[in-house]
C-alpha cells in the first residue's frame, strides 16, 4: 500500500500503470504517462532523490486520483 509519503520514481510509474496509465512518453521538459486524453507529467530522474510528498500530491491531483484510491493499491 503506497502512502502519501516520498516515493521512488520507478514506484510511482508502477502504481500509475496499475491505475490504467500507459507508457512513459517523451515530452517537452518532462516525460508523461497517459490515460485516454489525460496526461500526467512525471519528474525527471535524479540521483538518490525521491519524489517528495507535496509533489506526489500534485501529481495525484493532476491524474484525478483520490487519496483513498492511491492508498488502497
Task: Please provide a brief summary of the model.
The chain is α+β, with helices and mostly antiparallel strands and 73 residues long.
Please characterize this protein's 3D structure.
The chain is built from 3 helices and 3 strands; from the N terminus they run H-E-E-E-H-H. A hairpin with a 6-residue loop joins strand 1 (22-25) and strand 2 (32-35). The model has no long low-confidence stretch (mean pLDDT 91). A 3-stranded antiparallel β-sheet has the order 1-2-3, covered by helices on one side. The chain is globular and about 30 Å long. With 73 residues, it is an alpha+beta fold. Helices cover 36% and strands 16% of the residues.
Percent of residues in helices: 25-40%
For the report, how would you describe the main beta sheet?
3 strands, antiparallel
Unreliable parts: none
Distance between the termini: 5 Å
- Give the amount of beta strand, in percent: 15-25%
Rounded radius of gyration (Å): 11 Å
The ordered H/E elements are HEEEHH
Structural class estimated from helices and strands: alpha+beta
Quickly count the helices.
3
**Taking all residues together, what is the mean pLDDT?**
91
| Overall body shape | globular
Q: How many beta strands in the DSSP annotation?
A: 3
Strand order of the largest sheet: 1-2-3
